[in-house]
Records
---
Amino acid sequence: MGILKQIKEKFHSRETISSVKRELSSNLKDSLKDLKEELENNDCGCESDDVVVDSGDVGSDRVSLKSIYSFHEGAKEMKDLLGGKGANLAEMKRLGLPVPEGFTITTDACNFFLETGNYPKGFHDELAEHLAEVESKMGKKFGDIENPLLFSVRSGAKISMPGMMDTVLNLGLNDAVVQGLINQTGNARCAYDSYRRFIQMFSDIVLGVDHAKFEHALEGMREVRGVTSDIELTVEDFKELISQYKAIVFEATREQFPTEPIKQLSKAIEAVFNSWTNERAITYRKLNDIPDDIGTAVNVQSMVFGNKGETSGTGVAFTRNPSTGEKKFYGEFLTNAQGEDVVAGIRTPQKIEKLQEIMPNVYSQLIEIKDKLEQHYTDMQDIEFTIEEGELYVLQTRTGKRTAHAALRVAVDMVEEGLITKEEAILRQDPNMLNTLLHPSIDKSHSYEAIAKGLPASPGAACGIVVFESDDAVNKVENEDTKVILVRRETSPEDIQGMHAAEGILTSTGGMTSHAAVVCRGMGKPCVAGCSKIRVMESDKKFVIGDIIVKEGDIITLDGSTGEVILGELKMKKTELSGHFRTIMDWAKDMKTMSVRTNADTGPDCKIARDFDAEGVGLCRTEHMFFEEDRIMKVREMILSKTDTQREAALKELLPMQKADFKDIFKAMDGLPVTVRLLDPPLHEFLPSTEEKLTEVASNMTIPKNELRSMINQLHEVNPMLGHRGCRLGITFPAIYQMQVLAILGAAIECHEEGIEVHPEIEVPLVGCHSELKAVKAGIEAVTKDLRPMIKFDYKVGTMIEVPRACLTADEIALEADFLSFGTNDLTQTTFGISRDDAGKFLNHYLDKKIFPADPAATIDQKGVGRLMQMTVELGRKANPNIEIGICGEHGGEPKSVEFCQKIGLDYVSCSPYRVPVAILAAAQSAIKSRNLS
Amino acid sequence: MGILKQIKEKFHSRETISSVKRELSSNLKDSLKDLKEELENNDCGCESDDVVVDSGDVGSDRVSLKSIYSFHEGAKEMKDLLGGKGANLAEMKRLGLPVPEGFTITTDACNFFLETGNYPKGFHDELAEHLAEVESKMGKKFGDIENPLLFSVRSGAKISMPGMMDTVLNLGLNDAVVQGLINQTGNARCAYDSYRRFIQMFSDIVLGVDHAKFEHALEGMREVRGVTSDIELTVEDFKELISQYKAIVFEATREQFPTEPIKQLSKAIEAVFNSWTNERAITYRKLNDIPDDIGTAVNVQSMVFGNKGETSGTGVAFTRNPSTGEKKFYGEFLTNAQGEDVVAGIRTPQKIEKLQEIMPNVYSQLIEIKDKLEQHYTDMQDIEFTIEEGELYVLQTRTGKRTAHAALRVAVDMVEEGLITKEEAILRQDPNMLNTLLHPSIDKSHSYEAIAKGLPASPGAACGIVVFESDDAVNKVENEDTKVILVRRETSPEDIQGMHAAEGILTSTGGMTSHAAVVCRGMGKPCVAGCSKIRVMESDKKFVIGDIIVKEGDIITLDGSTGEVILGELKMKKTELSGHFRTIMDWAKDMKTMSVRTNADTGPDCKIARDFDAEGVGLCRTEHMFFEEDRIMKVREMILSKTDTQREAALKELLPMQKADFKDIFKAMDGLPVTVRLLDPPLHEFLPSTEEKLTEVASNMTIPKNELRSMINQLHEVNPMLGHRGCRLGITFPAIYQMQVLAILGAAIECHEEGIEVHPEIEVPLVGCHSELKAVKAGIEAVTKDLRPMIKFDYKVGTMIEVPRACLTADEIALEADFLSFGTNDLTQTTFGISRDDAGKFLNHYLDKKIFPADPAATIDQKGVGRLMQMTVELGRKANPNIEIGICGEHGGEPKSVEFCQKIGLDYVSCSPYRVPVAILAAAQSAIKSRNLS
């Protein structure tokens, strides 16, 4: 933290430093950037939160330097200090574009104000200086009753935030100044219109008076005058309205509407500051992962008037089509209007092309400007402009939001145009948005209302009739040829058949990594999980949300990307992978340095993943094979065996089935590594859980039901997640792992003989102590002795890292292992001491109250779990430099987590097939970023 | 590892180093000691196992130097190399005591042999040299038919091990040599008796021939001769017996008994080596925590004969009474006998005092020797001696085993005698043995047979009639005034009443930290847990072990110190704390540097602990109070409240009850700190779990049973240990913690006003993230605002450290906490990912197969959990240097764990009341050791 200290030392006495203020302020930005990098590099485990907290501290030092920047002083790189809007206004000034004069109050001033309740020292002097500067540049005076200067006041954080106060226009008007405006413009109607707009906006936004009251008065006036549009109202009407507005304000606030312009300005600035902490803003930040302490800047800009008649107007335009990405100017405008009219939707705006007809000069100037801006920013821009009596002004430019499709197309086009590099094209994609391209989605052009919202557990949309039992799902699909949605309190491995049959899954409990969520993501099937508002009554075959009762057979639609549950059938759209997508993915593959594998349990799943360019299987869960109908009975026989002989007989029958599974997988993954995890879950998961199933199994196995029940009770566990599973099973019942190893290597031998290139990796789950791995390896050695002459390929034996003790003793474990693979689902659960199945009862509360900055099941908890991972990599690589280290937990397809994996030096990430493109893109971005850093 | 490397480099070529061998061998011992210390200091987290593994490696280097040491070469410090017996024989030689000549084959030679199957290079030359040396000293020759030298061959590991081969006497005899022995001694009877003993012992121990066969032949001979004792048998009888013995050997081994003396010796040496790995030895090592790779030495000593008539004899003596500790010579001897006769119990030995009458000179020589040995070793000695025709020989000396009582008395006496320091007196106590002084125990003077053995989960013995339900336990005790043993599959918090009523608890599942075990240790009540051989059929009110059925009303006895279950009532003895115990504890208190607190939940428990010198409460579990009969219903109302108002009303009724509890505790702990943990367990633990209870609660609460059941089902958790508990409850239902904090501080205020000195410490459980602690603290702040003027004492707020994430982020947490307290029960479970309630299914297997070196629930896993603890202390102290750090998990009273806590610098340990003296002693020992190191 050298720089921070330096700064603090230099400025520990504010009084004596005014002389060096100016000199340093311009360098400060760079210093802070360095500081941030220093902080980030210092502690790989820390989240961006911390960095911001620290730079927040720096902020309160910074405010002593300079609180206000003229548009002539800033630049686009100064977003942290000036906000996005302010930085871009300054940048446009630098480019010589027609930007109305003004200045920006810094985010530091905002933070200082929010912390202390006061303005920074010297703020008011600075404000006066800057007002004077604008007045002199504009040749007008703020609050002057002859030639008045009016201002717009806008908030502008580093990141655009719809939840905050937006804009107050026409600030500086009162009963006297409005006369000056008439003098100045000769347009009384415009002046009074502006005045009543100002009162309305200011009162609504700054004073908190319900804006419906003003709308109501305006409507009343239209009614009284018998007109339908405001344009038809007269100057007298507006005067009358202004009186009414003032009365409304007094009634609501018990104070007169402030008439003094400087007081208006100061109240507006405070209102912008305070809007940072209003509820909507806080919610928006939470939803969008924006830190709470970056603060907002305030832009004070001299007004230009789009409401001065038919040669005036206002509009919004994109340099390219934000929906398709097509390279075509795209926008809308309204004549004789101020900014909010375009948004308000009272009048229908015209297409931007129309401007060419109405004001060809303005249009061509606008074209010139948009080209200049796009070239300068090298990205698609979203521009706001106003025309005042034929004179064009640009009020804002920012990077234009776009659809996932458009993002791909714009980036590819810009690379082809030579505007940006391929790396930049990659960095501009939001990996999470790719997801929407890979799954069907609800056609949002029709409106609908959700009856409940759960966790968006597996993306994509699905629609079908509701069923409550796995068997019903299978029956309906097979016999009635209908699509079904399986609704359950929670799913268990027994529901696999039903989940396969269903279009989507809805559960009332369980989080983002509950059984339903994990399996659905693996299957690429939509899932809404943990929808706690619904009460599922499986036995009554219905679920209830408040007064709504949904019965078996009713149709619902799920949106697994948003968590919404909708009654009835909605129209879907399926997006195909376009050529631009292909191009971007090809570039990404070239640029990434980590491999991307897939978590897949069957040949077909492997095929899907391989089509998405997966470079191997990072996790094949053998237990999923155990649930298939033709073998679950054998599995149960194996578990319930009373003697080793019985157990071995059952295993012998399972062996060829497993071998066939592995052959499918090896074939699909010809030439690529395949990591197969030996049996992991506790045995009772395979046993029947309902009375009905119990009867069936008892009769199939010809054992008395009571005996079966008692055997199952014996297998019951208090905390199954921490129980007799993983290698603990493999060590106490070695025959199971022996069968699996024979199946894996047997399949590999046969595939190899058929000319398939096999790279099997045998993975031992839940190792916490090197001696466990040693014990299992000894068992593997013993059982493969006879096969050895036939094994003409290399195979690896390694372990999952999924309990903290494995991380802490990774040096010992690494000596026994060819590879380590982080099972971050279980590692997160054990590190936190939180069961994913039970977290529902408090996790939402924790996220709401920001007790957890993010759901650790969704993105790697870098401070806790991440520290263990880093420790593992360091200890493991030190002990065994050739060891291969990857991740196969759910986080392996989550972009932030992928970036963390790159940072700590993993060899690969692995995720569900439909996540593979997301992971590839994230891996490419991480690689580019780490190259840029070094 | 500097020294190891040095040694290796110096000796990388064995051929060229013979010249420096001798010079270095004497220094080597010291080097190895340094090496060990170096290794131990290098890695605080490593267990003694590792050190041994490493020094094992050193061993195979060492064997090239010198495999055999004459008794004139060794010393008592060389136990690692010469074993305990060999080192002490050499030491006695150095002291000038009458020790028959001989030599010791090193443990390294043994290890080399066991690893490679060969003797170390040059071994046979060395052996020949040493044989020649003894022959020359004794003036006899091994295998000589005129004047033969005979040997005894004995094993002797560093630690005495009953499981190993013990002794072969009279080695070197055959049909020819026996004549030489007659020549030499003129005692044919003694010679033939020695010969037949030799064949019998050698065949049994070395050749593995069932010794019953020889006994049978001997009995046959007695019968034929019509005599009752061997002494009555003649020379001819022995000759005849010898022929029979040889025949027995040939029949059993299909080989002739080896006649060549050198072959006998070599076979005997190999037999000693191999006995290291026999099953009994392995089991013994496992039970006594002795490393497998330290090997055994072999002592070859020239024979002296106690069977040469009435002026010969053999005996065993202790320098003080090993049972009481009294300073009085204590022992037994037999005339005309060899060593094994004393042990065999065929003839009744005489008291040592008798020797004074029979052979006064020998006796006074023996007294002189025992005084010399005790002074020299400064500890009570266990001496073996033989008298050959009036000549006294000492064959062995070792530290005498003693009872816990004797250990205390001997130590205190020796301090008073100026023989040892107080520190040594403390170091000599086995903290675990103190346990037996604190609980009643089975009177072992009567023999008995256990019907089953479970885990020794809570020490002490208890006896009573068997009951299977908590209510039955209460009823029987209250109404029938009888003592009961509660037997259950496993206990739950609902059984608390019954556990209180019962004398002891027996469970069939659950480990050393299962509910039953933890609660019983807290109550100081005997418990045998996880007794997996018994099948508990609670509904039939019986349990079954094989063919034995134990029904309600049958009487059983439990030994919670050994895990034994015995049918019927056994006699008990209760040991009082003697004055010596008090003295030792006073010394220990002075010497320890860590505080010792107690885990206690009630005033009476606190009183017990304080009588044992506890220095505060380290953990008061408020939930235990919730189960008391008068409040459990209120607790249930609180949990099942449908509205906040209902919940608050129930809490309001609980408040005065909790306050009263805390007042009792503060009064009992006047002047000492009291850490109170806020509610920790998941709420469903408080709800009824049986149909019967459910009915009762439903009727009490006047809610329909079905509704109650559904509410309870809602609270069900898949993994309750990782669920909605601890601060997660406190954060989501803040009213509960608010009530508790009001009760704690309210009680403290009232106590303070009554003149009690209070030091409350409020402990927040299950914190994994600093923001959780912050949130709870904010709640505490809010609720205590009104109390503040009345709080005229300091109180602390801190947290348990019981999930890995808390350790990894201890720097952040420490900034929010006044103290941290390791909850190592949960921390061990989460670090390993093992539930203590479910571990029973594999843990025994793991311990048997040495996959885990020890049960991590019993002693801190220093490599894994310990590393996290160390990290916590480092991060925590760095962030907050004044933070208080302790441990309140079950490990807080386990000596090895206490030592580890000292090592990493904890401020206190805390354990159940009856463990407090153990912890004080262990803490004193740790403090002394760490002082000695520095």
Note: DSSP finds 38 helices and 33 strands in chain B.
---
Amino acid sequence: MTGARLSRTARREQLVVLGHELIADSSFDAVSVDDVASAAGISRGLLFHYFPTKRDFQVAVAERAGDELLAATATDATATPLEQLRAGVEQLIDHVAPRRDAYISLVRGAASGEPELRAVGDRTRAVLADRVVEGLGLREVPPEVEIVVRGWVVSTEEVIVSWLVDRDLDRARLVDVIVDTLLLPIASRLDPAEVERLGRSAAD
Amino acid sequence: MTGARLSRTARREQLVVLGHELIADSSFDAVSVDDVASAAGISRGLLFHYFPTKRDFQVAVAERAGDELLAATATDATATPLEQLRAGVEQLIDHVAPRRDAYISLVRGAASGEPELRAVGDRTRAVLADRVVEGLGLREVPPEVEIVVRGWVVSTEEVIVSWLVDRDLDRARLVDVIVDTLLLPIASRLDPAEVERLGRSAAD
């Protein structure tokens, strides 16, 4: 398909997918517009026809990375809240592990400092936090739960980045500790009926 | 003292203190080199004699902010680990609350994206994490504890920033939830003797 005539939307999509694949093994800042254009079989000038600046292209790639992370961590709504939480954490780890350097550069690197790229990260975090709160299926959400979940999303990011660098825990213990970091402070702030419901599925 | 002849070290110190005071009520990026020079009674040109670039000055002010945060949260080593943890969290909240906008801009704003300013924040976080681990006084530190503490430092930052914006909890409940977010996941990974020691002081 490289070099072939594509619609504007298809071409943009193709370039973003290529950019996203090319950063998987390297830092986010290392995306080379030349490499992407050459992989797509088009000129650098034509790439800038679709994305006026390199920053525009990076933002589109970061949005794609965020969308894929959200898609990869979507959970089965018929499972219990506890199962969904655990599965979501496992999926998150398995999604970012093969994209370690790109993920680290988005979370901690210079990319996290560019306001527009940072905004993409913040939107992804906000969607994750909302999804986690919703997934708990609480009848009433105490303010502590909202705040714990927001903190948990960034601590999970930090914990996974540390783990990707050090690998000093096996994956199951990592998942356990991430799940506990959310559940334990929350459980003590819910009434027992709500806690009990965390272990029941919608169908139960 | 403004305008008076000062030693190089004293002048640098004076400028950093003034810069730190001036950002307390505003965003970190809003530090105006002109305002600082004028408050010190010196010319803009002379300020650049002490700090070759605005970035150098900002880094010095951020280091000062980090040092003051660390000084403000130092705890009494004769108290029990639990008391030290709780006191440290209270001191952190009380230290950043009157410097809300400066703190938010350092944690979340554009300042957090400048590599050199970000590095100052990372060093401050690393010192806090080491201090927290040490303060627990464990005979053996399981890898989960190291990783939970690192995540907890960033989640605490996020939780406090959210709280400074929304203020939807009273301070005591905020402190409780921050302390629990660290202690609950850790306690379940320590042997009972270690957990029991968290409630005892060195003198006990």
Note: Chain B is about 70% helix and 0% strand.
---
Amino acid sequence: MAHAVIIGGGFAGINAAKRLGKSGKVSVTILDQRNHHLFQPLLYQVAMAGLDPSDIAVPIRALLRPYRRVRTLLGRAESFDLDRREVHFDGGVIPYDYLIVACGASHSYFGNDQWEAYAPGLKSVGQATEIRRRVLVAFEQAERASDPEEQARWMTFVIVGGGPTGVELAGAIAEMATFALSKDFRTINSADARVLLVQSGDRILKQFDADQAEYATQALRSLGVEVVLGSRVTNIGASGIEIGEQRIAAGTVLWAAGVQANRIGLQLDTPLDRAGRVKVQPDLTIPAHSNVFVVGDLAHTPGPDGNPLPGLAPVATQAGCYVADVIIDEVRAESAPDPARRKPFEYRDKGQMATIGRKRAIMQAGKRKKNGFLAWIVWLVVHIYFLSGFRNRFFVFLKWCWAYLTFSKGARLIVQKEWRQAESEMLSPVVGSLDETYRQDTRSPGPRFESLTRASQPSAD
Amino acid sequence: MAHAVIIGGGFAGINAAKRLGKSGKVSVTILDQRNHHLFQPLLYQVAMAGLDPSDIAVPIRALLRPYRRVRTLLGRAESFDLDRREVHFDGGVIPYDYLIVACGASHSYFGNDQWEAYAPGLKSVGQATEIRRRVLVAFEQAERASDPEEQARWMTFVIVGGGPTGVELAGAIAEMATFALSKDFRTINSADARVLLVQSGDRILKQFDADQAEYATQALRSLGVEVVLGSRVTNIGASGIEIGEQRIAAGTVLWAAGVQANRIGLQLDTPLDRAGRVKVQPDLTIPAHSNVFVVGDLAHTPGPDGNPLPGLAPVATQAGCYVADVIIDEVRAESAPDPARRKPFEYRDKGQMATIGRKRAIMQAGKRKKNGFLAWIVWLVVHIYFLSGFRNRFFVFLKWCWAYLTFSKGARLIVQKEWRQAESEMLSPVVGSLDETYRQDTRSPGPRFESLTRASQPSAD
């Protein structure tokens, strides 16, 4: 029986695995360095303490449980032997008849990887919880701070990059500060938080039409977000960012700018584009290897207009299903992999959406556009619908109803730090982490704090 | 207005803060190095992937939001100046009129602190998610392993310590292996997992009567747990444990044995007991400082029978409320702190419970005892009832219904590792973590894996 190996359990990999598994005609091994499939479109809600990781992440094993001929392995692919048809990973070697590479993409810091320590991106659950920790800790630090300048720095949040993720993060932080946290602090007024969305281009949301982007910009501004256009960040450090000569002191900087395909693409020695994506043929294979498919954000797939298809869940999902069908057909026909027999991949554009805060969104599919509250309702329904695994759908829906009615954020926990402390001998502190900021803090003289304490004593009034 | 400083947001601290806040007669500053109050009794369910951290942890700020004269600070207390009535913490100095120290306890490794890296305890959310990660990774490693011996090691789980936590962990792992994971793996049969509960004494659950402990032992054995009595662990390493001459190879070792009070107690220069707990007077103060109270697991509080009161939530809660009342009385009476006027603290025994798996529990209050399914129902109701914060109660109840009906575990995510990789330059790998075990793995020759792959190809049958 033919054996297909899938690298990556994202939208492309999972959907290919499911379809191949259903067919029963192919045995499958799916390899991922993480044990869970992640519903990326809602990841920003985990970062913003609205959802728990387990609401939007499901163990790959659990998703593929029904398919007895699909095997899940936790491990990291390292290289390929395309002639011997083998995948080399950190646990050994796996031979394949068909190979599907779907390792996705991560953020690009445009050659300034040192910025990542100060401005984490949002691609994994681990990064989401780290961002949550930093945002919540920033408010805590502001509450502690007595020096107004330091306080202002902690109350400033910079999001770099005006794509959907940046827009969603900026809107969510502004709303959290205004609503969820408003009654929680005594020294600061969380609603005074400054949220900047910095975009190098002359407008945000380039993926959308200008009028939609304009609507989103106004919506963000109405939430108090400062949308800074035409500004390229030239440096990021522990104390904030630089835009050319201009310095902006910020306690929290988040990165939502460039995208860089997974470096595994280099192992396929075939042409890549500037973002490191593998240039694939109409049947999503690489030249000279008709049994090796590359799909999802890792692939540079030419669209109808010649531009590559965007890195969206629907694109990855459709590509994964397409590849599975191609393989099943060939296995059924007992024919060898043959590009000539395959009809090319065609993407059916389902459109795209972005949400701004808790009751506005924009959507656009071809010529059809929508924005405002109705679009937000559609956004809600669509995301609940596509969320994998019924339990998650169920609980996410309940949590959203709850959050909408109460304005509260359920998951406002600062965890990472804790465990770091527990094993402080084993882990070196992370730059820009709380430990770090504490150290900055203790440099300032102790007594200064008394004033704050007095201020807090209502006996003063 | 009198100012009370509370160190620690556990059951004792939170309840003292709430009551003082309600009175409006005292301004309060509560200091904790974590931003959340943790419902410890259910922490093992987070470790066992049944609940999410945010189900049992609530931000201290959110809990105290209603009380305008209560201020929450994130920070770590470092020392006290009892004469100048000041708390020194990592952010400065806080003066107080009344001081309530409630920093709790952590695990004691009986002088073998190096064991912690191989056998984490279960006291914080960070530790719970780390334990979850290790248990889930162990099954993944077993699935990957081709060497039967290595596989057996990964399938062996040792819990050290036969108290309620040890019993609850052992029962939960055994059930997870038998039910939740049973259909998820292809190479291993998760139900073959070996779960050992190692206890140095001649029986488990010393806090309970012998017959109750006997019932629990039988219940554990019926779940497949090997209860090993009269065995003191003499060494713990990456590959397992030693009991005298006997070595037990285990991929996962969890620590639920000794308890060690928070070291902050040393800063009060007053007598401590062997567990490092502060010996308090009948009014829960320390000698010569009638405005300094020590409550909760940090305190050695003499009970009616002369033995110290156990480290239970009800004890901490009642002590916190008692201290708040004492302070409020004195403030109302405008009298200076005066031990003579105070009636001593009296603990009203609410009894204690432990649960074994998903439908059995034991409970005991004085002479009254119960066990079996009915006790489990009571356990369920009591824990839901006392869970702080309505949202949590609501969602935990739903998740339990769900889990009970489906046998599924919702939160089976391996996260920590991920983020470690993302910042691998910044964090050194943790001994015994996945990174480590991977390295062990890659030492073995790659090709050996092929056999496993073939085995997985149904074409073989």
Note: The first strand of chain A starts at residue 3 and ends at 7.
